[in-house]
Each structure stands twice: as structure tokens, then as C-alpha cells.
Design brief:
mainly alpha; Rossmann fold; 3-stranded parallel beta sheet; Glycosyl transferases group 1 family protein
């Protein structure tokens, strides 16, 4: 029987890979949630996703965004499961550097300073 849990932590703690096959999603917070747990992410190359995943260095960017694109990328990922922990660590490091409250506040202040 399904049960409610407080946040995504318990599910992410058991995950080997998070797949985000969205065709349109500006800034998927679930990617940051996975990165916070060092869970590797595979996500469609839409909107901000490639930048969030450091263009493939901190996760798997799926392109083209199609069933065949996903099939091909997942086959590559599953062919080397030993690589998943290091991809998860790089995602965690990217999240810590760019997407914490402090890092994002600094980025906003830098943008405001650049305009003023």
C-alpha cells in the first residue's frame, strides 16, 4: 500500500538514477532535489536543464527529446552503472556551488550590481 512521506528524501535515498523525461519544464526543482542527495540525473535537453546539468558534466542530458533519444541514452547509462556514483557526486558539487540559497543570492546580487 502506498503511503505519504515527508518530501522526496526517502525515495531519492533509494534511487540509483532519476529520469526527468519532460518535453517542457523551465527549471525542474526535482533535479536539484536529486542533486542534493547525490543521485545522478538523466533529463531531457529542454529549457534550463542542460545548464543545470553543466551540459552533461553533472548529469546526463538527453537529446533528442524523443523515445529513441531516451532509449539510446539510457542504454549508454545502463551499460556503465559503475559510473553513476561519480556522476551523482558531480551533480551534488554543482548544486552546492550554484544552487544553494547563498549561491543564488550572490548570483542575484551580482546581476543587480552589473545593471547598476
Amino acid at each position: 500500500m502506498a503511503r505519504l512521506v515527508g518530501g522526496p528524501g526517502p525515495a531519492l535515498a533509494d534511487a540509483d538514477l532519476l529520469c526527468v523525461p519532460s518535453r517542457s519544464e523551465a527549471f525542474p526543482l526535482v533535479i536539484l532535489e536529486a542533486m542534493a542527495w547525490a543521485v545522478p540525473v538523466a533529463a531531457s535537453a529542454v529549457c534550463a536543464v542542460p545548464e543545470m546539468l553543466d551540459f552533461g558534466r553533472a548529469g546526463f542530458v538527453v537529446e533528442p527529446v524523443s523515445v529513441s533519444g531516451w532509449r539510446e541514452q539510457l542504454a549508454k547509462i545502463l551499460a556503465d552503472p559503475a559510473a553513476l556514483p561519480s556522476v551523482g557526486r558531480r551533480g551534488f558539487e554543482r548544486m552546492q556551488q550554484h544552487y544553494t540559497v547563498a549561491a543564488m543570492a550572490d548570483a542575484y546580487l551580482d546581476a543587480i550590481d552589473a545593471v547598476l
